[in-house]
Amino acid sequence: MNNKNGMLTRLMRFIGVGGFCFVVTLVVNYGLKFTVLEAHPTTAFIIANAVATVVSFVLTRQYTFQNQNDAYRKRIQAIGFFTVSLIGIAINSAPLYVSRWILGFHYPQVSFLSQEVADFISGPIIGTLLAMVFRWWALHKFVFPDSQKINLPQEPQESLVPSKG
């Protein structure tokens, strides 16, 4: 498979994993938001993203970047993935926080329906899109780089020219 097809395949797999994790995020978020964390929607969203991040790690490592899945780099990949994901969670949650607490899109300043529409657009839509772009770039650049780009120590090569003597 050439490099362009490989990149496109990884991108499509990344989007598929992201779509599945988007559903996980929504289920956990609304489960928490409408039960035990009614007064804390940003916290519910952060917890939902954390749960989806664990699912995403397994799927991303085993499916999206399976060709860059070197066993000796497993710990480095895990640390890098969760670091990138923590930044991604902050990026993902920021629009919801701004919508709710800076712009004031929360009940009773606006209707409950307006609050929920603003929450959905700001968190799961805008936040997820921003975080997804960041995650794709950072994961591809730092956590699961192409094998050819990794600078590994190489064994000395024998000279092709016979030595005199």
UniProtKB/TrEMBL annotation:
Q: Where in the cell is it found?
A: Membrane
* Residues spanning the membrane: 12-32, 44-64, 76-97, 117-138
Residue limits of the GtrA/DPMS transmembrane domain?
13-144
Superkingdom of the organism of origin: Bacteria
Q: Which UniProt keywords apply?
A: Membrane, Transmembrane, Transmembrane helix
Q: Does the keyword Ion transport apply?
A: no
Q: Which Pfam families match?
A: GtrA_DPMS_TM
Q: Is Glycosyltransferase given among the entry's keywords?
A: no
Membrane topology note:
Multi-pass membrane protein
InterPro entries, per the entry: GtrA_CellWall_Glycosyl, GtrA_DPMS_TM
As for family, the record states: Belongs to the GtrA family.
Q: What is this protein called?
A: Sugar translocase
